[in-house]
From TrEMBL:
ATP binds at K524. It comes from Tetracentron sinense (Spur-leaf). GO terms for cellular component: membrane. SMART domains: B_lectin, S_TKc. This is Receptor-like serine/threonine-protein kinase. Pfam families: B_lectin, PK_Tyr_Ser-Thr, S_locus_glycop. Belongs to the protein kinase superfamily. Ser/Thr protein kinase family.
Length: 795
C-alpha cells in the first residue's frame, strides 16, 4: 500500500513539473487580444522576470485550475485561482478574446466562465509582483487578480474592508474553498479569523473596531499591517530582505501565516509570523465534539471518551456520541463521569449551562449527573462549568498551577453488553454462521418473490424508505431547558410583544447567563399537535442540532405542563420583509445579493447538510431575520414538522403562505424539498427587484395586469426580451444588469410548476455564484425558441 502511495505521489509530482515547465519562452510585456492557453499543453504566460506564471495548474484527478504560481521554485506554489471550486478538464482553454474578455472555456464550449466584464480591454500582463492585470489602450488597469484573492496575499497587495480570504479544503490535495476565513470586516474595521460555517465570532482578531482601515502587505519591507487613513494602527510582522520570495496564506489548519523562501538555493517555505501560536486555539479545528492536541506546530485530532469519529480516515471532521442521552427516561445511575486531566473545553455562551462556584471535583460530577441536559463540564480550581451538546473546542491544555480538568458524562454499559463482551470465540463463530445462513435464506426467498411477482413490484412506490443515518441514534442534543416562570420574568410577563406569526406569538426579553445579559426572542407555540412529551422533545432536539451562520440559533425550550415555548437569540434588525419593503431607501444591490446567497446557503444546509433533513415549508421574507450586522438568518425551520403530524401530505392548517406556496400543496402530493425551492424562487425575485410578489398599490399609470404579480411580470419581460423594464428605475441594478439577469433566470427555474424540473438548492447556489451556466428556464422556452445561455458571472 505504501509503495502504491509513493508511486501516485511521484506521478503527480512529475505531472506538475512537466505541466508547469513546458513553454518558457519569455512572455511579451503585453499579452495581445486573441491570445490563448490550453490545459495540458504545457504553456503559461510568464512575468518579465519569470518569477510568476499564469496558466493551467494541474491538480489531483487530472483537472486544472486557472491560476498564478511561483514559477522559479520547485514547489511551484499556487497563490491565486479563478476556478478553485470547479476545476477545468484537460483541453480547456483560456482566451483573451478580441472583444476584450478573459474567458475560461471547457472542452466543446460546454461551460464558459468569464473572468472579467468587457471594459475596453486592450491587453493583459503577468506582472513581477504576482498580479495578473487587464489594461486599456492607455495601460490603465481595468481588472486585476489582486482584487479577487483566494487564500493568499502577496507583497504589494492590499485588502479593503469587506474583502475575505478562504482557506483551501485540504492543503495541496484539494484547493476548493475550505472551512476557515480571514475577513477585514466592513462594518467595524476589525480583521478576524473564523470558522465561518459555525457563525464563529472569531478566534483571532486585531481589535481595530470602529476604524476605517486597509490591510497592507508592504512590497519594500515585507511588513504586514493595518492602516487607518495614513497611519499604521496594527503591526504584524518584521522586516524581510529582498532576496526572499514572500506570501501570507490562510491555511487549511485555520492559521494565517507569513512565509519566506530564499530566492537563491532555497529549499522550503519558512514561517516568519503566524496569527495563532497554539494550533488548538483555532475554533472547531477538530470539528464538533473533537479533541485537539498539538506539539505547538501541528494539531492532532481524536475523540473524547464516549465519542467516535465521524470519519476514521479524517479525524478533523469531528466525532459523535456513541450513545444518546435520553432525557425522557433519564436515570443518573445509568451514567458515569470520566475525568481528563489538563483538558479544557472552550467557554461558549450557547453551550455553557451553569457555573457552580466554590465546589470540588465531586460536586462537579454530581452536578453533571443530576442534570440530563449536561454532557460535559470543565473544572478550574473551585469552579465547575457544565455544558450541553454540541460542544466545540475540547483541547489538551498545558499543565500549570491553574488546574483545568474536563468531565465527560457517558452511559454505563449494561449487563447484557458486558456479558456479550465475554462470549468466547466459538460462540462468535456460531453466531456468524447463523447470520450467514439467515442472509442466504432471505436472499433466496427474495429472489423467488421477485421472479413470481414482478408486476406487483413495479407498481410499488418508487420512493425508497428513508434509511437512518449511521449516527441517527447518536446525535441527540441537550438544549437548555427553561421553566415557564423563568421566561415570564425574562419577558416582563410576556409584555414585550414583537409580533405574531403562523406558529405563535413572539416576545423579546433578557436572560442573565454566566454574568452576561443575553437578549432573547421567546416564541409561544399555539398550534402544537397532540403528542407525547418524548415526541415533542425529539422534534425540538432536531431543531437544536442545527448549527449554521444563516439559521436563527435555538437556545432552549420550555415544556411546563401545557406551556411549550422556544427560546432563540434575538435578531435586533427584524425581518427581511420590513428591511426590504420599507418606504425608506432600498438596500444596496450588493447587500441584496449577499442576503440572497446567505438564505440559499442556509436552505442548502437544511436540505442536504444537517444530520436530519428539514423542509421549512414556509419560506418567505417574514421568516428571514437580520442580526446586528444585517446577516440573513432563516427562522421557524423545523416548526412545520413539529406542529404537523404527517409532513408527507398537505394539511388544512399548514400549507405555507399564499403566493409563496408551491402548486403541489394543492394537489395532495408528497411534500419534498422542492416546495422550499419554489418559495425561494418567489423570494429571490422579491429580493433582487426589491418589491413584493403581489403589488396591489401600483401607481395608477403603471398598474398593468402583468405588473401586479411579480413572477408573471418578470416572465413576461423575459419572453419579450425586455427584462430591463423590471428595474428601469434602479440605476444601481442596471449597472449590474448581467448579474441581475442571471439571478432572475434562476428565480424562474425555481418557480416551475413541475417540482421535478426545479433545481436542487446546491445547483441554485452554483448558478447564482456563476459556477455553472443558467440555461433558459422551461417557462421561457414554452413561448420562445431562442436558445442561449444567461452566462456565468462577473463575480
Amino acid at each position: 500500500m505504501a509503495a502504491t502511495i509513493k508511486v501516485v505521489i511521484l506521478f503527480w509530482s512529475l505531472l506538475l513539473a512537466s505541466s508547469l515547465h513546458g513553454s518558457h519562452a519569455k512572455t511579451p510585456a503585453n499579452i495581445t487580444l486573441g491570445s490563448s492557453l490550453t490545459s495540458g499543453a504545457n504553456s503559461s504566460w510568464l512575468s518579465p522576470s519569470g518569477d510568476f506564471a499564469f496558466g493551467f495548474y494541474p491538480v489531483a484527478g487530472g483537472s486544472f485550475l486557472l491560476g498564478i504560481w511561483f514559477d522559479k521554485i520547485p514547489q511551484r506554489t499556487l497563490v491565486w485561482s479563478a476556478n478553485r471550486d470547479t476545476p477545468a478538464p484537460i483541453r480547456s482553454t483560456v482566451n483573451l478574446t478580441l472583444d476584450g474578455e478573459l474567458v475560461l472555456i471547457y472542452p466543446n464550449g460546454s461551460t464558459k466562465y468569464p473572468i472579467n466584464e468587457s471594459k475596453s480591454v486592450s491587453s493583459a500582463s503577468m506582472q513581477d509582483d504576482g498580479n495578473f492585470v487587464l489594461k486599456n489602450s492607455s495601460s490603465g488597469v481595468l481588472w486585476q487578480s489582486f482584487s479577487y484573492p483566494t487564500d493568499t496575499i502577496l507583497p504589494g497587495q492590499t485588502l479593503t474592508m469587506g474583502q475575505k480570504l478562504y482557506s483551501n479544503a485540504n492543503g495541496t490535495v484539494d484547493y476548493s474553498t475550505g472551512r476557515f476565513m480571514l475577513e477585514l470586516q466592513d462594518f467595524d474595521g476589525n480583521m478576524v479569523l473564523s470558522e465561518y460555517r459555525f457563525a464563529d465570532p472569531g478566534y483571532w482578531y486585531t481589535a481595530t473596531e470602529n476604524q476605517k482601515v486597509t490591510f497592507v502587505f508592504n512590497q519594500t519591507s515585507g511588513f504586514m499591517y493595518l492602516v487607518n487613513q495614513s497611519s499604521p494602527t496594527y503591526n504584524m510582522t518584521r522586516y524581510i530582505p529582498k532576496d526572499y520570495y514572500q506570501r501570507a496564506t490562510i491555511e487549511d489548519s485555520g492559521n494565517f501565516q507569513q512565509y519566506v523562501y530564499r530566492k537563491q538555493n532555497g529549499t522550503m517555505w519558512e514561517s516568519v509570523w503566524k496569527a495563532i501560536t497554539e494550533p488548538c486555539f483555532v475554533n472547531a479545528i477538530c470539528g464538533v465534539y473533537g479533541f485537539c492536541t498539538s506539539d505547538n506546530r501541528t494539531a492532532s485530532c481524536s475523540c473524547l471518551n464516549g465519542f467516535s469519529p465521524l470519519d476514521p480516515s479524517n479525524p478533523s471532521k469531528g466525532c459523535s456520541p456513541q450513545s444518546p442521552i435520553d432525557c425522557v427516561d433519564y436515570d443518573p445511575m445509568n451514567y458515569q463521569v470520566i475525568v481528563k486531566d489538563d483538558t479544557d473545553i472552550l467557554n461558549n455562551v450557547f453551550t455553557d449551562l451553569e457555573r457552580i462556584r466554590n465546589t470540588d471535583i465531586e460536586g462537579c460530577k454530581k452536578a453533571l449527573l443530576e442534570n440530563c441536559n449536561t454532557v460535559a463540564a470543565t473544572f478550574n480550581n473551585t469552579d465547575c462549568l457544565t455544558k450541553r451538546m454540541p460542544f466545540l473546542n475540547a483541547r489538551k491544555s498545558s499543565p500549570s498551577t491553574n488546574v483545568i480538568k474536563a468531565l465527560i458524562k457517558v452511559p454505563i454499559r449494561t449487563n447484557r453488553e458486558k456479558s456479550a463482551g465475554k462470549k468466547n470465540s466459538h460462540s462468535r463463530v456460531l453466531m456468524q454462521v447463523g447470520i450467514l445462513m439467515t442472509t442466504l435464506l432471505a436472499l433466496m426467498f427474495a429472489a423467488i418473490a421477485i421472479y413470481y411477482h414482478p408486476v406487483g413490484l413495479r407498481h410499488r412506490s418508487r420512493k425508497p424508505s428513508p434509511s437512518p443515518s449511521p449516527n441517527a441514534n447518536t446525535m441527540e442534543i441537550s438544549l437548555r431547558t427553561f421553566s415557564f416562570q423563568e421566561l415570564s420574568e425574562a419577558t416582563n410577563g410576556f409584555s414585550n410583544r414583537l409580533g405574531r406569526g403562523d406558529f405563535g406569538t413572539v416576545y423579546s426579553g433578557v436572560l442573565s447567563l454566566e454574568d452576561k445579559q443575553i437578549e432573547i426572542a421567546v416564541k409561544k407555540l399555539e398550534k402544537v399537535i397532540e403528542q407525547g412529551e418524548k415526541e415533542f422533545l425529539t422534534e425540538v432536539r432536531v431543531i437544536g442540532q442545527t448549527h449554521h451562520k444563516n439559521l436563527v440559533r435555538l437556545l432552549g425550550f420550555c415544556n411546563d405542563d401545557s406551556h411549550r415555548l422556544l427560546v432563540y437569540d434575538l435578531m435586533k434588525n427584524g425581518s427581511l420583509s420590513s428591511f426590504l419593503f420599507s418606504e425608506e431607501e432600498r438596500p444596496s444591490w450588493d447587500h441584496r445579493v449577499e442576503i440572497l446567497l446567505g438564505i440559499a446557503r442556509g436552505l442548502l444546509y437544511l436540505h442536504e447538510e444537517c444530520e436530519t433533513q428539514i423542509i421549512h415549508c414556509d419560506i418567505k421574507p417574514q421568516n428571514v431575520l437580520l442580526d446586528n450586522h444585517y446577516t440573513a438568518k432563516i427562522a421557524d425551520f423545523g416548526l412545520a414538522k413539529l406542529l404537523m403530524k404527517d409532513q408527507t401530505r398537505t394539511s388544512t392548517n399548514i400549507r405555507g403562505t399564499m403566493g409563496y406556496m408551491a402548486p403541489e400543496w394543492l394537489k395532495n402530493a408528497p411534500v419534498t424539498t422542492k416546495v422550499d425551492i419554489y418559495s425561494f424562487g418567489v423570494m429571490l425575485l422579491e429580493i433582487i427587484c426589491c418589491r413584493r410578489h403581489i403589488e396591489l398599490n401600483q401607481i395608477e399609470e403603471e398598474a398593468e395586469e402583468d405588473n401586479l404579480i411579480l413572477t408573471d411580470w418578470v416572465l413576461s419581460c423575459v419572453r419579450l426580451g425586455r427584462l430591463e423594464m423590471v428595474m428601469r428605475y434602479d440605476t444601481e441594478v442596471l449597472s449590474n444588469f448581467k448579474r441581475f439577469e442571471r439571478m432572475a433566470m434562476v428565480g424562474l427555474w425555481c418557480v416551475h410548476p413541475d417540482p421535478i424540473l426545479r433545481p436542487s438548492m446546491k445547483k441554485v447556489i452554483q448558478m447564482l455564484e456563476g459556477m455553472i451556466e443558467v440555461g433558459v428556464p422551461p417557462l421561457v422556452c414554452a413561448q420562445t425558441s431562442e436558445d442561449h445561455f444567461y452566462g456565468t458571472s462577473e463575480m
